[in-house]
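Sequence of DUF4238 domain-containing protein (Mesoterricola silvestris).
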Amino acid sequence: MIINHPVISTNYGTSIHPNKVTPEVRKHLAKRQHYVPQCLLRRFAIPNTDGEPKIHFYDKKLGVEGISTIHDVASKKGYYNFIEDGEIYTLEIGFGKIEAAIDRIIETVIRKRSIGHLTPKDRVVIADYLIKQLLRTPRARADAKAMLFAMEKGLESKGVELREAFSDYEPLTDDRVNKLAIDQLRGGRLSPELLLDKAWMLLETTNSDPFITSDHPVVRINNRAIKERWQRGSRGLRSPYVEISFPLSPTLCLSLVSKEHVAEIWIGYQEILRLERRAPAQAFFLWEAKILAETLMDGMTSGNAHSIGPDAVMNINSAQCHDCFRQVFSAASSFSLPKQMRMDGCFQEDSNGQWVWQ
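Predicted 3D structure, token representation.
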């Protein structure tokens, strides 16, 4: 099976240019800056609430749930502000422009319950946004800090004196990690092409079994790595079998399927067709697998929403709990899954005080 992806220049939005915080800019600059855009959180807001939109949240570190305004969750004061050459700059304005573009696209996808209408540029905009969303959250900053900490400890264990070996060495503080994270967003080193070569699907569930989102809403899933107990390094964007999951609303989720999975589905489908020709009686027992393969391939090619069952929804929601820094969000108080995971000891605190999946 060949999924033909339109060829388009991916120079679009490869970096976010900072804005200098002048007195005039400061008047309009948000104090609380969101690392999950409010346009996404609003789609998971509690229905029919008066005033400012509210959302259910569950904090996996504290083990508590509650209701908050979307203004107060997934945000932090001055999150994208930084100092350079004695001046204050921010990425908040640049993210605002990106979020306005992605909001319009998501709104159309939800209304049509399809991604079949997306233009090549739409897909580049989405892919670019997904990469930036992966990099902008506290979870991403905590992962970067843990990686740098491990590198430093590794060098020190070999007798390297860091201050002597590196003239520009700085202690691994939160401020340094935050500046490195901002520099990565400014640099645009990850190309949207990493996601454009995957097969895009729109998954659909019911309001009675909804998707949840989190403070790290774009997640990477590698079920093959979990099943076969692969070592670390199996969830990189270039790693085989890695899928991207991005819930758009309680009932719709964008899924980017790996080339390896697409190939397996196609090969399996061809085997069933060959068996039908050689031994129809035996092939009869594979009719469910055949229908599933045809449905999946239709979802990948047509872009129409593909309905999934409770087990698949739980797998996607588990990934949100797995990757979130602290909080998961829902339009309903649907937190039995993270609560059970916490009771089962699935979350453990690492050396940085972050609760992570075990």
